[in-house]
Amino acid sequence: MSAEAVSESKTAVRRGRLVVLAGPSAVGKSSVVRELRTRLPELMFSVSATTRDPRPGEVDGKDYRFTTRDEFQRMIDSGELLEWADIHGGLQRSGTPAAPVEEALEAGRPVLVEVDLAGARAVRKAKPEALLVFMAPPSWDVLVQRLTGRGTESDEVVARRLETARVELAAQDEFDTVIVNEDVSRACDELVSLLVGN
Ligand code: 5GP
């Protein structure tokens, strides 16, 4: 190997791993992701843009980038989004800004993108190397309990979320791995090993 090649191979950074996490609303993705971010400080968690209103406790720029519909449309038109989708029958739109994901992968950081089913399919098309992970509830009843128990949404919104959940659960075979979220720490362990394990 020439001296140049040696120095190039020393500076070349191995690309980070891209994991796409999907699963029904209220399955516990946010809790798992919160723990994951403390356990893996090098993780780049993609902050999605969304047109929905913040829930109590959600912070703009950390949980989501909350945008108007017009601003979201501008992002679509300018090609800034890796993927985007109409969520819950068009009640809201959410999407993944492409540039921060690509920059983190190039810098060798593991990246986690949390999306809905349509988003997972879109990322797979755009980035075939992505690992698709589905988070499932221990049972349908547990999911219904968690969704209705949150108490922050109207009956109409809950009904739509349940309908979306039914469709998403039926598609879990399309994913590379299914994590059953019975216990936040254990689900987190599984994600850590997918993101940075051997
Ligand atoms: P929530 O409004 O409860 O935070 O999320 C509703 C759904 O939108 C969830 O299934 C979540 O994974 C999905 N979602 C959040 N961000 C994105 C995104 O950037 N793109 C897509 N396609 N779905 C997203």
Automatic annotation (TrEMBL):
Task: Please report the name of this protein according to its UniProt entry.
Answer: Guanylate kinase
Question: Which organism is the protein's source?
Answer: Rhodococcus globerulus
Report the SMART domains cross-referenced here.
Answer: GuKc
Transmembrane helix listed as a keyword: no
Keywords for this entry? ATP-binding, Cytoplasm, Kinase, Nucleotide-binding, Transferase
Enzyme Commission number(s) = 2.7.4.8
What is the role of the protein in this entry? Essential for recycling GMP and indirectly, cGMP.
Main EC class the enzyme belongs to: transferase
InterPro entries given for it?
GK/Ca_channel_bsu (IPR008145), Guanylate_kin-like_dom (IPR008144), Guanylate_kinase (IPR017665), Guanylate_kinase_CS (IPR020590), P-loop_NTPase (IPR027417)
Q: Which residues form a coiled coil?
A: none
Q: Name one Pfam family in it.
A: Guanylate_kin
Per the UniProt record, the lineage of the source organism begins with:
Bacteria, Bacillati, Actinomycetota, Actinomycetes, Mycobacteriales
List where in the cell it is found: Cytoplasm
Where is it mainly found? cytoplasm
Where along this sequence does the record place binding of ATP?
G23, P24, S25, A26, V27, G28, K29, S30
Q: Which GO terms describe its molecular function?
A: GMP kinase activity
The Swiss-Prot or TrEMBL record describes its family as follows: Belongs to the guanylate kinase family.
Limits of the Guanylate kinase-like domain: 16-196
Catalyses which reaction(s): GMP + ATP = GDP + ADP
